[in-house]
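Archive record:
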Amino acid sequence: MALPSYAIVSPVKDEAEHLELTLRTVCEQTHRPSRWVIVDDGSTDGTRELAERWARREPWITVVGNERAPGAERARGGRVVRAFEHGRALLTEPHEFVVKLDGDIELPPSYFAAVAGTFARDPRAGIVGGHVLTPGRHGWTPERVGRHTVHGAIKSYRLACLEDFGGLRASMGWDGIDEYGAKARGWKVIPLPELLVLHHARRGSKQRWWRARLEEGRGAHYMGYLPTFVLIRSGYRMLVERPPLLGGLALLAGWASASMTGAPLADDPKARDALRREQRRRLRRLHMGAPVEPDRAEPVR
């Protein structure tokens, strides 16, 4: 079976500690990309210089800048998407799918062969990715994301699917609304739980915890979450995240603030409707006493 071609875009910011590991594991792939564009978002720790050294050895790697004012805090959501689209605009080689890959990911050598094989076997596969593990106190543990979602650090998009739902939205919640936009148009979101990748930084670790949770709440508003679902999700976070109670309260405060100030919703009503239908189904299951995942993951980065 011929594997489809692909390209990678990596928005990075101060990833010098782990980027070389990502560079090495991408270069060791049994199915290599046609192009890899690394978009440096104003790093000050030598990230860009490290990437450029590898690019001089590997001509299919391109490094470009996406600078901003020095000292600006790492933004989640909008800035990451704009950096991704900046890199995607530079892709000239033919490719059937494109990967948004973080700069602190360790991949097994067959990772992209498995992803490409999934796209090749299923013409309705729209978004594909492996299963992310993060460092914990007792070794590598699964990232807390929903079983039916693909982590935002490793999302692979079939180009036809990406174009069908109008591309990524430059907002907090981009890597949740994208999946509902795809599913609303008949595309499949396919996580590959047996395909393990190591993520060397936790979700939102480059922000203060309270700011990350506030933004996550705003992202829930942007995606169009049902109020009842937000309450359940916030309660769940109060129990499972540190510091206890406060993370869930901050998430709820972010959602409430966005709701009360009339912050915009995602400009894809089909995606919002698909999200709410799924949440209503899950709330009915919860009411009937069936297991439910209250924290559908948007690893919003």
